Amino acid sequence: MNIQSKKLQERLWSAAEQLRANGSLKLNEISEPILGLIFLKFADVRFRKTKATIELDSKDAKSTRIRPISQDDYKSKGVLYIPERAQYSYLLNLSENENLGKAINEAMNSVEEVNIELRGILPQNYTGLSQKADENNRILITLLKNFNQIPDDIGGDSFGEIYEYFLGQFASGEGSKGGEFFTPQSIVKLLVEIIEPYQGRIFDPACGSGGMFVQSARFVENHTKGNKQVMDEVALYGQEKIEETARIAKMNLAIHGLSGKIATGTNSYYEDIFNSFGKFDFVLANPPFNVKGKDKNGQTVIDPARLQGDPRYYLGLPLTGKKEISNANYLWMQIFLSALSKEGRAGFVMANSATDAGNSEREIRKKIIESGFVDVIISTSSNMFLNVTLSATLWFMDKRKKGTKRQNEILFINAQDIFTVVDRAHKTWTDQQIQEIVAIVGSYRGEENSIKYQDIKGRCKVASLEDIRANDYSLNPGRYVEIVEKEMDNVDFEKRMKELSNDFIKLSSEALELESKIKEDWKKII
Q1: Do 95 and 17 fall into the same domain?
Q2: Is residue 206 domain-shared with residue 140, that is, in the same domain?
Q3: What is the mean pLDDT of residues 503-524?
Q4: Distance separating alpha carbons of residues 74 and 79, to the nearest angstrom
């Protein structure tokens, strides 16, 4: 991404954020309408560019006749047809006395009517941003003008980057809730780079806003030779429980020029919409962490009776002594593993606790390890995710390793000290840091153009199945990678503690004095 694109993204977000800050709207109330307008602007730009080309092609060079242009002309070029009343300039030039919310709702509906692949996807809640009609109009005019800053000559991928930037900003603002639908791009990029989805069916049973699909498509695009299109190489399948999130995912795919089958309003614990067993070449996912069978109030969250007989849970259910689901982590793992074809690969995010979990979870982990499919385990730094401050673990399964010398080996990587600080609460990986980790995996797999693998103290270790059995089937990288103790600065610890203690006493005393003064001043006022 160039500096100009980054500045544009920041400027667009700043205007949208200012709108929220100066009003009564909450972040989750404006996210879908804003993403919808970004999508409409994108579709409108592509439509107008294509319209000029089609009109030029429709002219008969030997006469003044012009061939009639239809919606099919646009569809043949993979471009959405945008009716006149849905075109961005039409909405932007409406009188301020018009009901702009109603006009945008009708615009979105008209786009869905002529583009059946978008039906039920575009937001149509633009009359409810404010209870006051004039305030609602003011908000929408501000947003339309804001996104009109996006230049018409911007590339399609730049629109995708703007959409993803806004997704990330909304997710960050939502905190832990945001982490339910958005996985940071650096994490997704590493997952994709390691499973290498060059060609085949890709499945995400907890697909959120569709980031795994978008990054997979980028990977394919970067490695495809000739005139092949991404969608000729891969097929995308997802399941998402929350309908609003599924709509955002579908818009995300469309704005990147992608298409896929995303089942909406489905609970992946119980529903296997695509009959996934053995069907997919690649699985990518960031499922919800540590979901218990019952919540704090004793209400059933996951009913084990409904899971009985499901072929996806072929290694058993993680049950407590009371026959309740102890933790869904090992349900998700079986969903991923069972979906893989004979040479399938999976990459997914897991809570650290899953590497050492005991009882029934340990028994399932033992079976997974003994199957020989676990390929790589990577521990990350803290604050890499929006919804988890602690570090997490990335798991990689590979059915291709069966029958190779790696069958009875697992690569452990300690990446806890690899990160770039974004702010006090967030960290990320740069492309260079991602490639540093990917290079280790490539060496371990003996991939072409990679250097010969060797264990690196504090960074990576290939453990044998015997090693893992000796460690009670733990997959915690810290058990195998010898962590290097970093030397402390030459500091007199006792002296420094005394200094800090004195500072604390002084600040506490000043705080008491200030509190006393405020009380006295308040008495004078009243």
Answers
A1: yes
A2: no
A3: 62
A4: 5
Q: What does the chain come to in residues?
A: 526
Residue 317 lies in a domain: yes
150 plus 174 within the same structural domain: no
| Residue 456: alpha-carbon gap to chain centroid | 31
In this prediction, residue 388 carries a pLDDT of 64
Contact 342, 279 (CB under 8 A): no
The residue behind tokens 């200094």 is: 499
Domain with residue 33: its CATH number is 1.20.1260.30
Q: Are residues 222 and 126 in the same domain?
A: no
Strand, helix or coil at 11? helix
Q: Identify whether the C-beta of residue 499 lies closer than 8 Å to the C-beta of residue 453.
A: no
Q: How many helices (H) and strands (E) does the chain have?
A: 17, 11
SS3 (DSSP) at 107: helix
In this structure, the answer to whether residues 104 and 179 fall within a common structural domain is no
Task: Tell me the average pLDDT of the chain.
Answer: 87
For the chain, the first-to-last Cα distance in angstroms comes to 58
Q: What tokens does 425 get?
A: 């609460």
Helix H or strand E segment including 173: helix 156-174
In a domain, 220, yes or no: yes
Tell me, yes or no, whether 515 lies in a domain.
no
133 and 207, same domain (yes or no) = no
Please name the helix (run of DSSP H) or strand (run of DSSP E) that holds residue 395, with its range, or none: strand 392-398
- What does the buried/exposed string (b/e) look like for 70-86 if buried means 16 or more CB atoms within 10 Å of the residue's CB? eeebbeeeebbbbbeeb
More confident residue, 4 or 365: 365
Token match 């970067």: residue?
A: 222
pLDDT at 66: 67
Rounded mean pLDDT of 30-35? 85
User: Tell me, what's the pLDDT at 160?
Assistant: 73
For residue 508, give the amino acid letter.
Answer: S
Pairing mode of beta strands 374-379, 392-398: antiparallel
C-alpha closest to that of 143 among 275, 40, 264: 40
The predicted-structure confidence for 426-463, as pLDDT tens digits, reads as follows 899 999 999 999 999 999 999 998 999 999 999 999 99
Side-chain-side CA neighbours of residue 472 (13 Å):
8
Domain count, the chain: 2
Range of the domain at 284: 170-479
For the stretch 330-388, pLDDT in tens is 999 999 999 999 999 999 999 999 999 999 999 999 999 999 999 999 999 999 886 56
Question: CA-to-CA distance for 167 and 178, rounded, in angstroms?
Answer: 9
Rounded distance, CA 320 to CA 110, Å? 52
Name the pTM for this structure.
0.82
Q: Which two tokens stand for residue 309?
A: 């007989």
- In 3-state terms, the chain is what percent helix, strand and coil (to 5)? 50, 15, 35
Is residue 79 located within the same domain as residue 190?
Answer: no
